[in-house]
Design a protein that fits this description.
Layout lengths: L11 E3 L6 E3 L3 E4 L5 E4 H6 L10 H4 L7 H9 L2 H16 L4 H30 L14 H11 L3 H7 L11 H11 L3 H10 L3 E9 L5 E14 L5 E15 L5 H14 L7 E6 L3 H4 L5 H8 L4 E4 L1 H14 L2 H18 L2 H10 L9 H6 L5 H7 L3 H16 L4 H14 L2 H13 L12 H5 L2 H11 L2 H15 L29 H24 L1 H8 L6 H4 L10 H6 L10 H11 L1 H5 L4 H11 L8 H12 L5 H13 L9 H12 L1 H5 L3 H10 L9
Parallel strand pairs: 5-8, 8-9
Antiparallel strand pairs: 1-2, 3-4, 5-6, 6-7
Protein name: TTF-type domain-containing protein
GO molecular function: protein dimerization activity
InterPro entries: DUF4371, HATC_C_dom, RNaseH-like_sf
Length: about 700
């Protein structure tokens, strides 16, 4: 009050004549106890039953205006003098409450050991996405208490804890579990420090509904870190996509999502001016060019360019080819029916397992079913020879025809006839070729690799002209299989011709020509057109940094680098200086042979920063541009993976879970490698200090 505060001068007093300073050893000042000063000897040993006892110097004094007078008065009291004498005897002889001190230390050691085991059990259950408490009606103690009781058989500390009488303090309640989950989930503070220390970062956000129909916003950040040893020498380069938790989505409109994203970055202390990319799916509220979330964020930070999730774009392109070409759609319907035929019967699935080899057991027909919306399954399945798998299933169907009932007999017979057709085998070869380019969900995939689809377009255009070659390869496979070796001829559909119709469309009566025009060419044309159209905006972003492609870096003419100041330095003028083109030319000249050996931008960056760390200061602008390039997002796969954890953590049996607990468990599960490296002693200290506890821990 009155702008007065405690001063260090109160710790000493001086004589009137000589001016010699004498310390006041009895005085203590505590910032935690409401910033007050008190007398330690009186606090410990004052006679509280005395008639003239005053508790002011025991509870603490904050009257700084009259403190000097109160100090002089307190020093002259008998209670203070007696307490100081006992205090000095206690310090010299340690005869007062020595046994009590020992008991307190032993109790603190015991409870710290208990909390260490509770932390380890909590971290294990959270990392494995397991429930902590019992489910209603199960009649057991739940995973947490069951593990504690199991460990008590082998650990004397837990055995003593479990054997304590009912009603005793044990720190095993669900409230204590929530406190530990919250404390351990604060590992995102270390992640946030890494994000702020990184030169750039990008935002990857996506939303979904949990089992309670509550919208959940997944927060993922992408940034690049340089790994260094004890000598501060770079030894590696790491692209990070880290998860900072779930937040309850307040709405789905662009303005609401924008406010929530900005509030999240501000709450976490992340500087928006260092954001250089935004990764969202193709929903209109996220990707809208004028009022979408990406447009609103770009208004706040113009360098935060938006990248439409590349796998989503590819999936849309492939889905268009499936939906708009009836022959391809029937192909995947057949694959789905094949899975349903075996998957819905225990006996049939067991029969399938008997016929399969050890190698093919790792791939199931479910992969093909999932590819109806996820193309990766068929590609993974093709690695284990799809033709062999279908041949094996054909033998099973033939075996089933001899033993099945009438309905099952008809179903098996229909499937056998379909997968034995020449067109089905042809489509397997064709779809396998299309899927060779669709693996872009790895964290270390750079945007240049994701956008380099011109090669895929050229390959597919060449493949479109190779119908006869594909047909010959299919005939060879069909011959080994003993299946049809030519396209099945079907009756041409006749349409009634009206008297006023001058002409009619030409119908292809030849089965091979009909398949080539309406299935083969139609499917490839849609895929090629979609690849050319959907990635136009992505290519505009990549063209700014395309000079770093190692495949073309050394082949570029020197004159082409004159455009870099206007394209790259001007666009990222806040990050890259005009000296960048000169450094880039010097870098290319000095390391021409090594650059030619690199396969990607990541390898090129490692070559410069890790393998030739001595010259990074010479090519500082090149290093900055390379790190910026690798920071740009490619996909929202990390957010999609967090939704898989969400479904595991908050399922229909745990649908009442709170938001804070859900976010904490998700962080511990997804960032479990970081969680395992946490200092358990610091976690126990944080638990002891967050509020007053009934048991000692220090």
């Amino acid at each position: 009050t009155d702008n007065r505060s405690f001063s260090e001068s109160y710790y000493t007093t001086s004589t009137n004549k000589v001016g010699m300073k004498v310390p006041r050893k009895w005085m203590c000042y505590s910032p935690k106890l409401d910033c007050c000063c008190y007398c330690e000897p009186c606090w410990l040993f004052a006679n509280r039953n005395a008639a003239y006892y005053n508790s002011a110097w025991v509870n603490g004094i904050r009257d700084w205006k009259h403190l000097s007078a109160k100090v002089e008065k307190h020093e002259s009291t008998q209670i203070h003098l007696g307490a100081c004498i006992v205090y000095e005897q206690w310090k010299l002889n340690s005869t007062i409450d020595t046994e009590m001190e020992r008991n307190v230390r032993n109790a603190a050691l015991f409870w710290r050991r208990v909390l260490e085991r509770i932390v380890n059990v909590t971290l294990t259950l959270a990392s494995c996405n397991l429930a902590f408490r019992e489910m209603r009606g199960q009649g057991n103690a739940g995973n947490f208490l069951s593990i504690m009781e199991l460990l008590a058989h082998y650990n004397p500390v837990l055995k003593e804890l479990i054997n304590r009488p009912e009603g005793s303090v044990k720190y095993l309640s669900h409230q204590i579990q929530d406190e530990f989950i919250y404390i351990m989930s604060q590992i995102n503070a270390a992640i946030i420090n890494e994000i702020n220390e990184a030169p750039f970062y990008c935002i990857i956000m996506d939303t979904t509904q949990d089992v309670s129909k509550i919208g959940q916003l997944s927060q993922v950040y992408r940034y690049v870190t340089i790994i260094k040893n004890n000598l501060d020498t770079p030894i590696g380069l790491q692209i990070n996509e880290v998860f900072l938790g779930f937040e309850a989505a307040v709405g789905s409109s662009p303005s609401e999502l924008e406010n929530q994203i900005l509030d999240s970055t501000e709450k976490n202390g992340i500087d928006l001016s260092k954001c250089r990319g935004q990764g969202y799916d193709g929903a209109v509220n996220m990707s809208g060019a004028y009022s979408g979330v990406q447009a609103r964020i770009t208004e706040k930070e113009p360098l935060a360019c938006y990248v439409h999730c590349v796998p989503h774009n590819l999936n849309l392109a492939l889905n268009d080819s499936v939906k708009n070409v009836p022959g391809v759609k029937r192909f995947y319907d057949t694959v789905e029916n094949l899975y349903n035929f075996f998957g819905h019967s225990i006996k049939r699935w067991a029969l399938l397992s008997e016929f399969s080899t050890q190698e093919s057991r790792t791939v199931t027909l479910k992969c093909l079913f999932r590819f109806y919306s996820r193309h990766g399954g068929l590609f993974a399945l093709c690695k284990f020879s799809f033709i062999f798998l279908v041949k094996m299933q054909t033998k099973i169907l033939e075996f089933w025809l001899l033993q099945a009932e009438k309905q099952e007999h008809n179903e098996a017979s229909a499937l056998k006839n379909v997968i034995g057709k020449f067109s089905f085998i042809f489509l397997v070869k064709m779809q396998t070729k299309i899927l060779e380019f669709w693996l872009l969900q790895a964290k270390d995939t750079d945007i240049l690799k994701a956008s380099d689809l011109q090669n895929a377009i050229n390959v597919l255009m060449e493949f479109r002209e190779q119908f006869d070659e594909v047909k010959s390869a299919t005939i060879a496979v069909a011959a080994k299989w003993g299946s049809q070796m030519q396209f099945e001829t079907t009756r041409a559909r006749k349409v009634k011709r009206h008297f006023d119709k001058l002409s009619e469309d030409c119908c292809l009566t030849d089965a091979e020509s009909n398949f080539q025009v309406h299935v083969f060419n139609a499917c490839l044309d849609i895929v090629i057109q979609q690849l050319s159209h959907r990635f136009t905006s992505l290519n505009r972003t990549v063209n700014i940094l395309r000079q770093f492609n190692p495949k073309h870096f050394c082949k570029q003419e020197m004159s082409s680098y004159s455009k870099l100041p206007s394209v790259l330095s001007d666009h990222y003028s806040r990050d890259i200086t005009p000296s960048f083109p000169a450094q880039l030319i010097c870098f290319r000249t000095s390391f021409r042979d090594q650059i030619a050996q690199q396969k990607s931008v990541v390898d090129l960056t490692k070559m410069l920063i890790v393998s030739h760390s001595a010259v990074t200061s010479t090519f500082s602008e090149v290093c900055t541009a390379l790190i910026l390039f690798m920071t740009l997002p490619v996909s929202v796969a990390s957010s999609e993976r967090s939704f898989s954890k969400l479904k595991t953590i908050k399922n229909h049996l745990r649908s009442t879970m709170g938001q804070e607990r859900l976010s904490g468990l998700a962080i511990l599960s997804i960032e479990n490698e970081r969680a395992k490296k946490m200092d358990i002693q610091s976690i126990v200290d944080d638990f002891a200090e967050c509020k007053v506890r009934r048991m000692p821990f220090k």
